[in-house]
Amino acid sequence: xxxxLSPKFLLEDNLIKLARWLRLLGxxxxxxxxxxxxxxxxxxxxxxxxxxxxxxxxxxxxQKFPRYLIKNTSYKNQxxxxxxxxxxxxxxLFSRCMNxxxxxxxxxxxxxxxxxxxxxxxxxxxxxxxxxxxxxxxQGSHYHKMKLILQKIFLKQ
Length: 157
Hints:
Layout: E1 8-11, H1 16-24, E2 29-31, H2 37-46, E3 49-53, H3 56-59, E4 67-69, H4 75-81, E5 105-107, H5 118-123, E6 127-129, E7 136-137, H6 141-154
Parallel strand pairs: 1-2, 1-3, 3-4
Antiparallel strand pairs: 5-6, 6-7
């Protein structure tokens, strides 16, 4: 397993799509729903996370905690905003569950035969599983589409 990427993030729940894409890049991107602002700030400090917000009011608070104001509404533009703070690293891509934010683990194909479509089982050899939610991942068409989006954002000349 690769060393975890830095920084770790804490995102407001209105940035859930950005959180999912940060996870695809391999970043620890936590989202705590229905949590007070003071609790979120305390979590950001305790867990040494950069707090990502779209709120200018939160961004301008006098309290000391690492934060970044996200200005765009499109996740692609939001990722572009963060390009100075995050990187595209092939070794970390698709290493975290998009939903749970935990590290994925390799799983033997034969162990998941009855959990995936037969055509997928016959087509692909390598699989990863989220031990928290049980989702199974493989490098199918979604994988390639998402990787292409990330490459266009991070590797464009």
